[in-house]
Amino acid sequence: MLRVTKLRYGFPIGLFLCFFLDGILGQVFPEQLFNYPYSMSSYLVVLWLVLSVYFEDPIKIPLGVWAAIAGGIFDLYYTGIFGIFVFVFPIVVALTRACFKAFPINFLSGLLVYFIDITIVSGLSYLGNVAIHITSASFTDLLVYSLAPTLAYNLAVYVILYFPIQRLFSRLKN
């Protein structure tokens, strides 16, 4: 149960900021993120959800619900098609929780789990887009031109933001 703490209000505000920062970064740095044939996707929302799984104890946040809400808004706002991320984000939260039952929670194991999460987000969104005929790119093109740069960018963002977000969560929980 989510007690009345600063986290109750801080978590949705952080999720909302990450949601808009994903779009703002794409608008401010289009040449760096989308330089043909390569494209990087910013998944700050996924980073916020994953780090919330890491740092939520002992306060339990209903992350599955928040992930579905964020996925639905992400779908409608950024892609215009409802349905891909509304399922992908809760899957990532469930996968992250399952991984941390097996791994200790620390920076390096978190980096590995985040690597897996970004790969799954990119792969499932690709499969969803292929299924509804939005993309015709091959799987090889996805790996070389989209997934590799996306992983590099998002893992760098993870390394930069891990400790500040950890401090923010510890402040919000107290």
UniProtKB/TrEMBL annotation:
InterPro entries, alphabetically? Cell_shape_determining_MreD
Q: Which NCBIfam families match?
A: shape_MreD (TIGR03426)
Q: Which domain of life is it from?
A: Bacteria
Keyword Lipid biosynthesis recorded: no
The membrane topology noted for this protein in its Swiss-Prot or TrEMBL record is: Multi-pass membrane protein
Q: What GO terms describe the biological role, i.e. biological process, of this protein? A: regulation of cell shape
Ranges in a coiled coil = none
Name of protein: Rod shape-determining protein MreD
Major site of localization recorded for this protein = membrane
Q: Where are the transmembrane segments?
A: 36-55, 76-95, 107-130, 142-165
Q: Which UniProt keywords apply?
A: Cell membrane, Cell shape, Membrane, Transmembrane, Transmembrane helix
Asked whether the keyword DNA-binding is assigned, the reply is no
Record-stated family: Belongs to the MreD family.
Biological source species: Secundilactobacillus similis DSM 23365 = JCM 2765
Localization per Swiss-Prot or TrEMBL: Cell membrane
Name any GO cellular component annotation.
plasma membrane
Q: Which Pfam families match?
A: MreD (PF04093)
